[in-house]
Amino acid sequence: MYQKFQISELFQVFKIMDLIPVEGNVGLFRDENSKAVLNCSDSEYQKYLELKEHKLKEYQRLDKMDKKINEIEDLKNELSELKSIMKDLVSHLQSNS
Protein backbone atom coordinates (compact mmCIF):
# COMPACT_ATOMS: atom_id res chain seq x y z
CA MET A 1 0.00 0.00 0.00
CA TYR A 2 2.68 2.50 1.00
CA GLN A 3 6.17 2.55 -0.44
CA LYS A 4 9.24 2.65 1.76
CA PHE A 5 12.03 4.91 0.53
CA GLN A 6 15.63 5.39 1.56
CA ILE A 7 16.63 8.99 2.42
CA SER A 8 18.45 9.43 -0.90
CA GLU A 9 15.38 8.14 -2.74
CA LEU A 10 13.17 10.52 -0.77
CA PHE A 11 15.22 13.49 -1.87
CA GLN A 12 14.80 12.39 -5.50
CA VAL A 13 11.05 12.07 -5.02
CA PHE A 14 10.92 15.43 -3.25
CA LYS A 15 12.79 17.10 -6.11
CA ILE A 16 10.21 15.75 -8.55
CA MET A 17 7.36 16.89 -6.31
CA ASP A 18 9.01 20.26 -5.55
CA LEU A 19 9.30 19.47 -1.83
CA ILE A 20 11.86 21.32 0.26
CA PRO A 21 13.05 20.04 3.66
CA VAL A 22 11.98 22.31 6.54
CA GLU A 23 15.03 23.50 8.49
CA GLY A 24 15.33 22.05 11.98
CA ASN A 25 12.46 19.60 11.49
CA VAL A 26 13.42 16.13 10.33
CA GLY A 27 10.63 14.55 8.32
CA LEU A 28 8.85 17.83 7.48
CA PHE A 29 8.83 19.15 3.92
CA ARG A 30 7.22 22.14 2.24
CA ASP A 31 5.51 21.76 -1.11
CA GLU A 32 6.68 24.57 -3.39
CA ASN A 33 3.40 24.72 -5.29
CA SER A 34 0.82 24.65 -2.50
CA LYS A 35 3.11 25.87 0.32
CA ALA A 36 1.73 23.02 2.45
CA VAL A 37 3.97 21.39 5.05
CA LEU A 38 4.01 17.61 4.76
CA ASN A 39 5.04 15.21 7.51
CA CYS A 40 6.92 12.30 5.94
CA SER A 41 8.06 10.71 9.22
CA ASP A 42 7.50 6.95 9.50
CA SER A 43 7.49 7.10 13.30
CA GLU A 44 4.86 9.85 13.35
CA TYR A 45 2.73 7.88 10.90
CA GLN A 46 3.09 4.75 13.07
CA LYS A 47 2.01 6.77 16.13
CA TYR A 48 -1.02 7.99 14.18
CA LEU A 49 -1.98 4.43 13.22
CA GLU A 50 -1.62 3.24 16.82
CA LEU A 51 -3.73 6.15 18.11
CA LYS A 52 -6.37 5.48 15.46
CA GLU A 53 -6.51 1.77 16.44
CA HIS A 54 -6.73 2.69 20.14
CA LYS A 55 -9.61 5.10 19.49
CA LEU A 56 -11.44 2.53 17.37
CA LYS A 57 -11.20 -0.03 20.19
CA GLU A 58 -12.39 2.60 22.67
CA TYR A 59 -15.42 3.44 20.49
CA GLN A 60 -16.23 -0.26 20.19
CA ARG A 61 -15.96 -0.67 23.97
CA LEU A 62 -18.25 2.31 24.55
CA ASP A 63 -20.72 0.98 22.00
CA LYS A 64 -20.84 -2.36 23.85
CA MET A 65 -21.41 -0.50 27.12
CA ASP A 66 -24.29 1.47 25.58
CA LYS A 67 -25.89 -1.75 24.37
CA LYS A 68 -25.55 -3.30 27.85
CA ILE A 69 -27.08 -0.20 29.44
CA ASN A 70 -30.01 -0.40 27.03
CA GLU A 71 -30.48 -4.10 27.83
CA ILE A 72 -30.49 -3.33 31.56
CA GLU A 73 -33.04 -0.55 31.07
CA ASP A 74 -35.24 -2.92 29.06
CA LEU A 75 -35.00 -5.55 31.81
CA LYS A 76 -35.89 -2.97 34.46
CA ASN A 77 -38.96 -1.93 32.47
CA GLU A 78 -40.03 -5.53 31.97
CA LEU A 79 -39.56 -6.27 35.67
CA SER A 80 -41.61 -3.23 36.55
CA GLU A 81 -44.35 -4.41 34.21
CA LEU A 82 -44.28 -7.90 35.76
CA LYS A 83 -44.54 -6.42 39.26
CA SER A 84 -47.54 -4.39 38.19
CA ILE A 85 -49.21 -7.44 36.70
CA MET A 86 -48.50 -9.45 39.87
CA LYS A 87 -49.98 -6.71 42.05
CA ASP A 88 -53.07 -6.59 39.88
CA LEU A 89 -53.38 -10.38 40.03
CA VAL A 90 -52.99 -10.49 43.80
CA SER A 91 -55.47 -7.66 44.18
CA HIS A 92 -57.93 -9.45 41.92
CA LEU A 93 -57.51 -12.72 43.83
CA GLN A 94 -58.01 -10.98 47.17
CA SER A 95 -61.15 -9.25 45.99
CA ASN A 96 -62.62 -12.58 44.79
CA SER A 97 -61.94 -14.40 48.03
Topology, please?
Blueprint: H1 7-17, E1 19-21, E2 28-31, E3 37-39, H2 42-96
Antiparallel strand pairs: 1-2, 2-3
Tally of individual domains:
2
Portion in helices? 55-70%
For the largest beta sheet, what order do the strands appear in spatially? 1-2-3
Order of helices and strands: HEEEH
User: Judging from the principal axes of the Cα atoms, what is the shape?
Assistant: rod-shaped
Q: Poorly predicted ranges (pLDDT <50, ≥5 residues)? A: none
N→C terminal distance: 80 Å
Give the helix/strand class: mainly alpha
How much of the sequence lies in strands comes to 5-15%
User: What's the number of helices?
Assistant: 2
The overall average pLDDT, rounded, is 86
Largest sheet: 3 strands, antiparallel
User: Rg to the nearest angstrom?
Assistant: 31 Å
Number of strands: 3
Structural features, described:
The structure is a single chain. Strand 1 and strand 2 form a beta hairpin. This protein is mainly α. It folds into two domains: 1-40, no CATH class; 43-89. The radius of gyration is 31 Å and the shape is rod-shaped. The model has no long low-confidence stretch (mean pLDDT 86). The protein has a three-stranded antiparallel beta sheet. The protein is built from two helices and three strands; from the N terminus they run H-E-E-E-H.
